[in-house]
Amino acid sequence: MKIVYCIRATYNPGGMERVLLNKVSWLVKRMGWDVTIATTDQQGRQPFYPFPEEVRMVDLGIDYADDNDKNVFKKIVGYLRRRRIHKERLTALLMREKADIVVSLYPSESSFIPDIKDGSRKVLELHFCKFFRLQYGRGGLLGLIDRWRTRQDERIARKFDRFVVLTEEDKGYWGEMPNITVIPNAAVFVKNKRSDLTVKKVIAAGRLDYQKGFDRLIQAWEMVQRDGKFADWILNIFGQGEWHDMLEDMIVGKGLCDSLYINKPTNGIWDEYVNSSILVMTSNYEGFGMVLVEAMACGVPTIAFDCKCGPRDIIDHGKNGLLVPDGDISGLAEAMMRLMADEEERRAMSRNALKVVDTYSEEAVMAKWIALFSNLIQR
Fold first, then answer.
1. Which residues of 164-173 are buried (b: 16+ CB within 10 A; e: fewer)?
2. Which CATH number does 2-186+361-377 carry?
3. Which DSSP letter does residue 231 get?
């Protein structure tokens, strides 16, 4: 089978890029399928994760990001011009490749890719929840635009042969759509990588931006340190992004430099999970929450805000982790202190957390993808 994946770029150390790596590695190594990844904004940069040499990487040279710093008018004009070029170049690529399946990881090409008549089946794979455009709660004209774009997302999704979301929760928000299905992200489970839960470290990982909400985590950590009982605990955040300097200023301003550290992303995140006793996720919104599954696979209990969408699908509150009402900073601090103070509860949650291997293993998840692809080309 021949598959083309469309994504903006692969140089970021994000969850979507890591999921794509795991998926295409399985398809080329285990299935022997032909896989191409088409990017728009790679700009000659190397992928952050090492993709198999069997996977062909094609950059279309659209470079949407070059317009990010321009004024609104120039952004709109630039976007429309680049979108036209994008459609022309992607159409040429797909007509040449004659793939069986084309998968859009959203959003750049999703509005026009179903209209490309190359003979392939089209799949939209959404790594955000339906409400990701509305999470800023903007009013006025910008709020109207956010709501209009959310309605457009639904119209676009209906045009695909299959529309894949990551959680049952998110599926419910989209309503009755005949083409929608749920396939969660798979986690690569590393054997013999288990935390002993004795290291006095809390870990968080993700892009340093609004979505991941690390400003909320820093506020909660200040409360933890103010309590006075956990001065020997450390919080490590792994990530990079536009909020880096702002978050560092918060840490300095709150006097947390001796207990809270922002670290660069690492390919060895599994070793960091193993060297921690709790993982905390404070996102404003998610599509899934990959770090929860990865940490649980290492036996690390997790704490997360009950945001849309993902945490409530993964965390069984009080059994394999703790859910905190979204935005409850003091509740988050209390949840962290609860597990930091009780090693036995951490161990009990760890035993339950390890059961995620059954639900989110590569074998289980990739079987769903292979069935979806196979059924599509038999139609």
1. bbbbebbbee
2. 3.40.50.2000
3. T
